Amino acid sequence: MSRVIYENALDDKSDIKDLSLEGSGEISFAEGAMKIVSAEEAVLWYVKPLPADVRIDWEFKPVSATGACHLHFAAKNVDEKISEFLLAYYNRITADEMSFHTCSLYKNGPENLVYKGADPMACAAEDTWYRLSVVKRGKDVFYGINNLELVHYHDDGITFGEILTGGNMGLGQLSGTEALYKNLKVTWI
């Protein structure tokens, strides 16, 4: 049976008391949402460990036409090395990324691309909110926007390391990115 274990509207400064900012970013709140402007790479971590099987939902709206946003999950520091999944869901840095939008899933480092798929998000000028969801259940990872599945990765537990379980999650942005976030929810599934 599913159980919500964390819910955060992200619409007021008091909402980030359970979160920790790593890197360089400016956080502000207006019109019912949290805005992150990252001068360098910035990650807003939920520091309590999550269960092995989890669903993470949030609403996202890009503000800058260029930049990159990602979700870290199942993240652990093991022997001074980060073990995690990294979902790059808003990639608008290179000319190729600007003309053909994709999302990418990495395991245990940016050199280990495990899945690349289409990204239907419009550019920031469209002024649209998107409902994003990540599900990590056993060996499977799913990602979707507005109930449209874009990524389904089945981990063999061998190719890029053992099956990832538990760990932390964080909302991240690369340098020069501005984006809005609201309604973060984590469900134990």
Question: In short, what is this structure?
Answer:
The protein has one helix at residues 95-99; strands spanning 3-8, 19-30, 33-46, 54-62, 67-78, 81-92, 102-107, 113-118, 130-137, 140-145, 148-154, 168-173, 177-188. It is an all-beta fold and 189 residues long.
List the main descriptive attributes of the protein structure presented here.
Jelly Rolls; mainly beta; 189 residues; 13-stranded antiparallel β-sheet; 61% strand; 13 strands
CATH architecture: Sandwich
In terms of structural class, how would the helical and strand content be classed?
mainly beta
Beta-strand residue fraction? over 45%
The CATH top-level class label: Mainly Beta
The poorly predicted ranges are none
Task: Give the overall shape, derived from the CA principal axes.
Answer: globular
Instruction: Give the CA-CA distance, first to last residue.
Output: 7 Å
Query: How many beta-strand segments?
Result: 13
| Number of discrete helical segments | 1
Biggest sheet, in brief? 13 strands, antiparallel
Helix content: under 10%
